[in-house]
């Protein structure tokens, strides 16, 4: 009998290390094996080869095969159950609203892409947590604002899997917390050790289990939580050495990189949570699906309130109180804010109107008041929070400076006991509730850690530290950052710092400021600081995603300083671009605060900020200050259009000249409302309604017959099949200069109607009919009219239709006569080289036309360029889409 090697395994009941002794036996018969020594801390594995009648005594046999795997899975489920309990209890969990997106541009950041509104009405479709993975999605990136519910969602998935209530298709599930990874980021480890750290210390970590996990393939689910907190996140894009073994030890960042991108456990499914600002740091992941956590909608807010209050009547009263203050209600879309607001409203009496928080900073101060309530209970004579802060200033400073140090530390929101001791924080002070204890690893020999209950709370306390230390120089340091861009951690801290200088919080501010500093000095410093960033925003490019502009508006609103809002509105010079800024509905409160102080009409660009109807409701009182409003892709419905028109109708002198409502999936109800509005409105010059799936717009065409102020109407990318009514309207209309009806389903009936209208109309300059179903019939009739009956049309676009050489030959004759047409677009029709030759011949007699966009079917691009070498007005570049 050969005695094999010894190795450590986690198999003892007390959680300590035990020894696995391997015995290899061959050709043995009729023997009893009783290894020497005490075996209370030894597990024995017997490998028997051609042995008969062998009995084993006084040993703890190490289970092999399926028993090991089943034991390990049971331990995983036990640990996942514990993980689920770290968040809200399963029975009280309120699932946030999830929306799947097809792509997420790597260059986009937190505020750069359109963030769908969390104000989703009752009955609206939700994506359940257990439907995150599809057949195509091997990796899911779950992203959202701080406090939207990402980590809680991960814990819920783990908890539900442990009870076999969800994700039952997975045999193994592991949670890897980047916050925990930061604790050992400089150590060497293997992927298997990294995964096993999550499991119970009593579970086997033998090679049999790791091999079983590898064999499980797509039945393994890896949950990576908090990528934005990973201290090495900015290094992942640089690439790393290839590592595909689950057992090979290497530096932890290298192991993690290969585990993330799927070199290790390539068939496993992966879910990664992050704030969107850090998604660009993630390496390329195969088969990625992007799911946005939107926080709470109306259903979720109501359910959350009902679960937070034991008394249903108190819950109803609190919810009614919050709904009366729309900004407060919109803040409830973030679960962390909803939780804080509920905690603040659990007082015996709901606060009166004057005490209702209206800014984020005021809400967090209310939360801090709740945390320090037990200090007031110890001193019955303390009747105000201000007095309590004066007496407990030293305690508050400890937590504030701890948070400030955490914000500078790579570990961010993770603290050891030595950190608390270094700041003099006592056990009683920890029990106040500012910090949450967490045993981050299962192995009890590792030190316990502490953290603020949410990253945003750490950022709030860090702002308190800056204020209490009188660090006005911090503002100068931020301004002088070489990149000109704020770090995300600075943004949150500065937002809270601005809010602490609001008039309502000044009594508390005076209490917190160090001796020798005044609130007036701080307010002046904050105003000067924000005006510097206002100048930077004013100089930015219109098409650049305006993340910093949105942050600036939030800060201005937090200050509640009217004079500052007036200065900012003046410097912005009548334009405010928030294109792809990631604005949420409640951000419109900040925007309205600035607009309220404008002295002239503003151009407001909110494109690709899906802020929904509730966000627009905040802007409606300031519509008299807006001259150009772009609401493209903002998730608004017919309700917004109705309210918008109703507000404009009440204005004595309407100022709105441009209204862009593209890509909002509006219905014909909006068309009817706008049609009625156009019949008597005299201010609107531009109306854009592209990509809304309209089918019947006849009433809008009829309104044009009576309106003589609208100059541009854009209806591209709809489902309009008949536009003959527009032809009739153009015969009476004398103001419209541009009409877009591209990418619809128009046929020759509509084309003939437009051609006939051009024989009468003398104002229309551009007619866009690209990508419809028009043929030579339309183009020939256009040629008849343009010969001598119309002098106004300068641009005709009929690309992507069904025009042939027959129609083109006739139109070429028109080009010999008409000297008013400047551009002709005929790309992607059924044309041959004969059409190109007809055009070349006609241009010899035409000096008016400047550009003709065309390509033909029977010539290569190179041959076309050769034919047109002497005629630079013909554009046959393949890059053009017109």
Biggest sheet architecture: 12 strands, parallel
Computed over alpha carbons, the radius of gyration is: 34 Å
Number of strands: 29
| Mean pLDDT across residues | 80
Portion of residues in beta strands equals: 5-15%
The rounded distance between the terminal residues' Cα atoms is: 84 Å
**Largest beta sheet: strand ordering:** 18-19-20-21-22-23-24-25-26-27-28-29
In terms of quaternary structure, the protein is single chain
- Segments where pLDDT lies below 50 for 5+ residues? 1-50, 54-65, 105-124, 349-353, 440-444, 878-882
- Fraction of residues in helices? 40-55%
> Which structural class matches the secondary elements?
alpha/beta
Count of DSSP helices?
34
Shape: globular
Tell me what you see in this structure.
- It contains 34 helices and 29 strands.
- It has a twelve-stranded parallel beta sheet with strand order 18-19-20-21-22-23-24-25-26-27-28-29, with no helix packed on it. Strands 7-14-8-13-11-9 form a six-stranded mixed beta sheet. A four-stranded mixed beta sheet has the order 1-2-4-6, with no helix packed on it.
- It is globular.
- The N terminus and C terminus are likely disordered.
- It is α/β, with parallel strands linked by helices and about 900 residues long.
Which structural traits does this protein have?
disordered C terminus, alpha/beta, six-stranded mixed beta sheet, twelve-stranded parallel beta sheet
């Amino acid at each position: 009998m050969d005695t094999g090697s010894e190795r450590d395994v986690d198999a003892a009941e007390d959680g300590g290390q035990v020894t696995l002794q391997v015995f290899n036996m061959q050709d043995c018969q009729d023997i009893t094996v009783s290894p020497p020594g005490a075996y209370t801390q030894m597990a024995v594995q017997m490998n028997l080869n051609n042995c008969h009648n062998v009995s084993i005594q006084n040993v703890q046999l190490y289970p092999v095969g399926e028993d090991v795997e089943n034991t390990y899975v049971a331990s995983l489920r036990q640990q996942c159950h514990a993980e689920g309990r770290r968040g809200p209890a399963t029975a009280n969990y309120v699932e946030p609203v999830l929306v799947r997106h097809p792509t997420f541009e790597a260059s986009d950041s937190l505020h750069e892409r359109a963030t769908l509104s969390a104000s989703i009405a009752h009955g609206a479709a939700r994506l359940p947590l257990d439907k995150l993975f599809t057949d195509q999605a091997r990796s899911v990136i779950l992203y959202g604002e701080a406090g939207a519910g990402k980590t809680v969602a991960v814990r819920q998935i783990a908890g539900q899997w442990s009870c076999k209530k969800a994700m039952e298709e997975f045999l193994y599930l592991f949670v890897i917390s980047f916050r925990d990874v930061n604790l050992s980021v400089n150590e060497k480890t293997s992927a298997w050790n990294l995964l096993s750290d999550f499991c119970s210390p009593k579970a086997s970590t033998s090679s049999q289990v790791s091999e079983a996990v590898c064999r499980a393939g797509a039945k393994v689910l890896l949950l990576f939580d908090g990528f934005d907190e990973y201290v090495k996140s900015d290094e992942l894009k640089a690439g790393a050495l290839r590592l595909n073994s689950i057992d090979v030890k290497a530096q932890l960042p290298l192991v993690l990189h290969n585990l993330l991108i799927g070199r290790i456990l390539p068939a496993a499914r992966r879910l990664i949570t992050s704030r969107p600002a850090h998604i660009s740091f993630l390496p390329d992941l195969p088969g990625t699906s992007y799911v946005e956590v939107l926080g709470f909608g109306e259903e979720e807010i109501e359910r959350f309130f009902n679960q937070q209050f034991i008394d249903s009547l108190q819950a109803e009263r609190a919810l009614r109180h919050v709904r009366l203050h729309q900004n407060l209600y919109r803040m409830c879309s973030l679960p962390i804010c909803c939780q804080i607001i509920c905690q603040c409203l659990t007082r015996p009496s709901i606060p009166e109107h004057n005490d209702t928080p209206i800014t984020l900073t005021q809400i967090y101060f209310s939360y801090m008041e709740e945390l320090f309530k037990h200090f007031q209970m110890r001193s019955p004579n303390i009747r105000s929070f201000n007095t309590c802060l004066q007496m407990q200033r030293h305690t508050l400073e400890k937590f504030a400076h701890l948070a400030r140090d955490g914000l500078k530390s790579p570990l961010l929101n993770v603290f050891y006991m030595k950190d608390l001791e270094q700041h003099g924080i006592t056990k009683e002070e920890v029990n106040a509730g500012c910090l949450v204890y967490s045993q981050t690893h299962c192995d009890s020999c590792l030190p316990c850690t502490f953290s603020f209950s949410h990253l945003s709370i750490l950022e709030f306390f860090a702002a308190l530290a800056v204020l209490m230390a009188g660090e006005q120089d911090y503002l100068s340091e931020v301004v002088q950052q070489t990149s000109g861009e704020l770090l995300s951690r600075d943004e949150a801290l500065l937002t809270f710092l601005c809010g602490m200088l609001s008039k309502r919080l000044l009594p508390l501010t005076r209490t917190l400021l160090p001796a020798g500093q005044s609130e007036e000095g701080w307010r002046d410093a904050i105003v000067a600081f924000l005006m510097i960033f206002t100048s930077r925003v004013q100089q930015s490019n219109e098409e650049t995603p305006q993340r910093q502009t949105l942050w600036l508006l939030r800060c201005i609103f937090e200050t509640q300083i009217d004079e500052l809002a007036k200065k900012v509105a003046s410097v912005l010079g009548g334009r405010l671009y928030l294109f792809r800024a990631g604005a949420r509905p409640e951000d419109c409160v900040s925007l309205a605060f600035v607009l309220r102080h404008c002295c002239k009409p503003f151009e407001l660009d909110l494109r690709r900020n899906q802020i929904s109807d509730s966000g627009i409701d905040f802007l409606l009182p300031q519509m008299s200050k807006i001259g150009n409003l772009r609401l493209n892709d903002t998730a608004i419905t017919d309700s917004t259009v109705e309210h918008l028109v109703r507000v404009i109708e009440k204005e004595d002198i309407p100022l709105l000249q441009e209204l862009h409502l593209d890509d909002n999936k509006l219905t014909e109800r909006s068309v009817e409302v706008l049609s009625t509005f156009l019949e008597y409105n005299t201010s609107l010059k531009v109306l854009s309604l592209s990509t809304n799936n309209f089918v019947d717009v006849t009433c809008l065409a009829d309104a044009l017959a009576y309106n003589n102020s609208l100059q541009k109407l854009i209806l591209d990318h709809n489902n309009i099949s008949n536009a003959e009514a527009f032809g009739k309207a153009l015969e009476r209309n004398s103001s419209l200069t541009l009409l877009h009806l591209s990418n619809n389903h128009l046929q020759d009936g509509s084309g003939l109607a437009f051609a006939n209208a051009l024989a009468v109309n003398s104002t229309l300059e551009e007619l866009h009919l690209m990508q419809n179903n028009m043929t030579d019939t339309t183009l020939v009739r256009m040629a008849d009219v343009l010969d001598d009956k119309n002098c106004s049309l300068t641009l005709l676009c009929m690309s992507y239709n069904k025009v042939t050489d027959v129609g083109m030959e006739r139109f070429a004759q028109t080009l010999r006569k008409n000297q008013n047409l400047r551009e002709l677009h005929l790309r992607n029709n059924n044309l041959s080289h004969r059409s190109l030759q007809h055009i070349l011949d006609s241009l010899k007699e035409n000096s008016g036309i400047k550009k003709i966009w065309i390509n033909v079917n029977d010539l290569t691009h190179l041959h076309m360029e050769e034919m047109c070498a002497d005629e630079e007005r013909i554009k046959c570049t393949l890059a053009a889409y017109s």
